[in-house]
Design goal:
About 80% of the residues lie in helices and about 0% in strands. The protein is an all-alpha fold. Helix 1 runs antiparallel to helix 2 and helix 3 packs antiparallel against helix 4.
């Protein structure tokens, strides 16, 4: 359903002639994405045992990032080959509809084959009723580590969102990178993280998921502190490497931990709550990031992002320590 809704957005975009109409249309596209990604991660969680879940989440992340990296290049190639930007929108719509068809055929019956015995280990419960807000809040109090991770998810994306409106300006005006170099660098970084996601998931399953989350966040925090040190490639390259490594290590383990902390029958709800917290950070972050850039300094958004990522890392470490290594609220 999410893929079908998302497929409508680029098709309508190709017909628009007023810029402001793209804003409500993004709401349609966002509704499709919000239906797709929590459900996709929940299906991964429902169909894999806990000791292999980070590996499976790493495979999902690998495919997502590979598409994110290759998509812009393909769209520009199609637009250049056909001489029309609209062709890129048509292709996006066709690909999303094809994905919806593939999902309808390949996911038929998923969930119906789970046995009751799997419910305790995997967390699947097909008869779970729809939760009300009061139940969600009550479950959050019973699962404190899950609540902490939702706060950390907000802090992470709030920090990343600070850079959204100024990163391209910083790379172009301060460092002096061209659009071509920025596009190539983005593609290389996304593909590198995609290739690292699967082995990073396997590492998390063997090393410990919460440990992988913590050290991934610590590396990303370090990269954010390095980024504003020098306005040049001397700081940009190692910072990008640390941020990419941190993301690759922590993301598969993060989703695996969220799924294991979820109350029975609430895996999709827990993952959706995590992505809602992330989305709230990405909405509010750019507003503050642009203000800091305009009113304080060019380095202020990066320093604020580093503080937020470090605070999230410290908060998670404190919560895990209080939960204890053997507690049910601290999964491996």
């Amino acid at each position: 359903g999410g893929l079908i809704v998302s497929a409508l957005a680029p098709l309508i975009m190709s017909l628009l002639r007023a810029a402001w109409l793209f804003v409500p249309l993004r709401l349609v596209d966002g509704a499709g994405s919000s239906a797709l990604w929590p459900a996709a991660a929940a299906i991964i969680a429902d169909t894999t045992p806990p000791h292999r879940r980070a590996t499976a989440m790493g495979a999902l992340n690998m495919c997502f990032l590979a598409g994110l990296g290759l998509g812009p290049a393909l769209g520009l190639y199609v637009a250049g080959f056909t001489g029309s930007y609209a062709a890129g929108f048509y292709l996006a719509s066709v690909m999303l509809l094809a994905a919806a068809t593939l999902a309808a055929l390949s996911l038929r019956g998923v969930g119906a084959t789970h046995q009751v015995a799997d419910a305790v280990e995997i967390g699947y419960h097909g008869a779970a009723r729809s939760p009300h807000l009061e139940e969600v809040l009550a479950e959050g109090r019973r699962y404190p580590l899950l609540s902490v991770m939702l706060v950390v998810a907000f802090l992470q994306m709030f920090g990343a969102g600070l850079l959204a409106p100024i990163l391209v300006i910083y790379a172009k005006r301060v460092i002096g990178l061209s659009e071509h170099v920025m596009g190539t660098s983005f593609l290389i970084l996304m593909l590198a993280i995609a290739l690292a996601s699967l082995p990073a998931g396997r590492l998390a399953d063997r090393w410990g998921k919460l440990r992988a989350v913590f050290w991934g966040m610590a590396l990303a925090s370090l990269g954010m502190w390095v980024l504003p040190l020098s306005p040049g490639l001397v700081a940009l390259a190692p910072a990008a490497g640390l941020l990419g490594a941190g993301y690759a290590i922590s993301t598969p383990a993060w989703h695996a931990v969220i799924s294991q902390l979820a109350p029975p029958g609430r895996v999709g709800l827990a993952i959706g709550a995590s992505q809602t917290a992330e989305g709230m950070g990405l909405v509010l972050g750019p507003l503050l990031g642009g203000l800091l850039w305009d009113e304080v300094s060019h380095q202020a958004p990066f320093l604020a992002a580093a503080v937020l990522l470090s605070a999230g890392t410290a908060l998670l470490a404190l919560a895990v320590r209080r939960a204890g290594p053997g507690g049910s609220s601290a999964p491996r």
